[in-house]
Structures are given as structure tokens and as C-alpha cells.
Amino acid sequence: MSGRLSTVKGVTEQKRASAPRATRAGAADQPGYPGRDLGLPETGGGSVASMSRRVGALFIDWLLCWVIVVAAIRPYPADVTYWTLALFAAQDYLFTSLTGFSVGKQLMRIRIVSLDGGIIGPLWGLVRTLLLLTVVPALIVDRDLRGLHDRAANTVVVRV
Fold this sequence. Notes:
Helix content: 40-55%
Largest sheet: 2 strands, antiparallel
Strand content: 5-15%
Number of domains: 1
Number of strands: 2
Structural class: mainly alpha
Number of helices: 7
Order of helices and strands: HHHHEHHHE
């Protein structure tokens, strides 16, 4: 039994010795940054957008939809939230499917892109928007900062 234990220890020590070590930022063998596994740059244009930029864009889009509803539709005060949600869903679906931008995303200098390089399209834009509206999938992110709605639609939010 002790022979088997020493073999396991030896293999474990060999793996530790050959594993890349974490070094200062900029080293080629650094354990990773959001987007590295997707082939995206660490910083600048094309890098994964931070959560603060995403939340800022969401806030801007929601506020803009609210202003349009209050100014143009003028519903009963109890119905403003429903109209705002409907307008937000429509603009998010339309802009995501066609361009990957919205007003908030343009102001925050971010964009939704498909991982296969094409446009997101109507089907995946709808899937992504419906999951975004349920809120929870957008809060569950992986190490590339992709929410479940992004993973389902095969998209990522990047800096422009």
C-alpha cells in the first residue's frame, strides 16, 4: 500500500513541477483573463466588456425607454413599468439581432458579437432577449463574463 501511495505522490509532484506558474501581468503563461479562451485580447477594442459597462448600458437603455413611454404613450402611472418593459424588450431584440448595438451600448462603447463572426440574427436575438428579461441568466456568468443568455445565443459582449 505504501508503494502505491508513493507513486501517487510522485505523479502529483511531477504535474505540479510541469504546470505553468502564475507570473506578473503580461506573461505568456498567465492563468487567464476574461476572453482568453475565446481568443479575444486582454485589453482594448475586442476585449470582453466589464460588468460596469454592461450595467451602465442597461441602465441607459431602460431610462431611455422609460422617457419615451412617459412622453409619447402617456399610460396610467400603474402601467408605465409594463410599457417600459415592452419597449425595452422590443428595442433590445431589434438592435441585438440586427446590429449588436443599442443606444446604451453605443454610449458605453460595447457591442454584442456572435462567436462565429456573423450577425446574431433573429432567432438567437430572441433567445438572448427572452433570457435577459428573466434577469437570473444574466447574473450567472462564467470566467469569460458571459451570462447564460450569452452562452445560449453563442455571443459575447466586447469593447468597441
